[in-house]
Amino acid sequence: MDFAWNSQQIEFKRKVIGFAQQSLISDLIKQDKEEIFNRAAWQKCCEFGVHGWPIPVRYGGQELDILTTAYALQGLGYGCKDNGLIFAMNAHIWAGEMPLLTFGSEEQKEKYLPLLCREGWIASHAASEPQAGSDIYSLKTTALKDGDRYILNGHKHYVTNGTIADLFIIFATVDPSFGKEGLTAFLIEKDTPGLVVQKSTSTMGVRTAQVAELTLENCEVSVTNRLGQEGAGLAIFNHSMEWERGFILASAVGTMERLLEQSIHYARTHKQFGQAIGKFQLVANKLVDMKLRLETAKAYLYKVAWMKENRQMALMEASMANLYISEAWVQSSLEAIEIHGAHGYLTNTELERELRDAIGSKFYSGTSEIQRVVIAKFLGL
């Protein structure tokens, strides 16, 4: 077992961090308050190649291996403080591009992947409904076949990238009586008649990302827009969740590393009672715990990346990574605030935003409770 990154990977991560620190700087306090998505930064990431890191060159990507992709995304999270932008990008890659790469026809891949990798198009994954979140079997959106087309009707919510997406992967049932065998996925472009997009209510964190509600009102799509076969929706959904749960928080590992370094610097330089506060055991213990969480988060992330690179199923490990990293990010963000004291509570310190953003990660790709349910099932419980 080799725990070392090679020189090319290390250098690439350095370039990613440098790119993020130089090119993705913006007035985040203002953007967070006004819920502004940084489209210019998205385009810069596209030009740098981020959107195509795990996608084959023939479809416009960079064809990086999964371990290198995860490592680079960690660097992106370290260098870029815009967690909403990073969240949108990870959702785009793992829940948008990857299922299209695996289940799309050659025509679909040739048409859409270059647009998503190189041209700045944004992908969105729409499965959740008011009465069907993690319970995908209960979704009510229908796709009734009529000759060479499907007519979709239904409602989706909590749709990441919804208001900015160019392409949606939308899940529906071709016949409610079929149960899970009726679940089917469709590729639908944003300007398709019958597709109505509306911004959701404001969120606590990741406000620079865009979450929406979708309404499908007799939305007609060609059979050529179906992703995979009829009834393959459950397989596509599970495939998407494996990738998303495993890697949507890859960048959060880099964020945790940045928070640790920032907190160490403050603990060394801020003095109380005649000495640096880091000399107080309670403060030092918080930093030690942050370091332990960081290294454990890396281990979970790299394990899933290694498994996927070696074409192994990682459903349980992906849920474990998602669960651990999300909860570790929340706790480390809270402790970073505590170490900074009242200063950490101020908006211009930007730590309170980190905590708000981190809390949202406990709901990505299924709540922490759902991740525990998934893990328990793999344990035979």
UniProtKB/TrEMBL annotation:
Residues making up the signal peptide according to the UniProt record: none
Pfam families: Acyl-CoA_dh_1, Acyl-CoA_dh_M, Acyl-CoA_dh_N
Source species, domain of life: Bacteria
GO BP terms, alphabetized: branched-chain amino acid catabolic process
Named cofactor requirement(s): FAD
All residue ranges annotated as the Acyl-CoA oxidase/dehydrogenase middle domain in the record: 126-219
Xref: InterPro entries: Acyl-CoA_Oxase/DH_mid-dom, Acyl-CoA_Oxase/DH_mid-dom_sf, AcylCo_DH-like_C, AcylCo_DH/oxidase_C, AcylCoA_DH/ox_N, AcylCoA_DH/ox_N_sf, AcylCoA_DH/oxidase_NM_dom_sf
UniProt record similarity statement: Belongs to the acyl-CoA dehydrogenase family.
Name the UniProt record assigns to this protein: Acyl-CoA dehydrogenase
Species annotation: Cylindrospermum stagnale PCC 7417
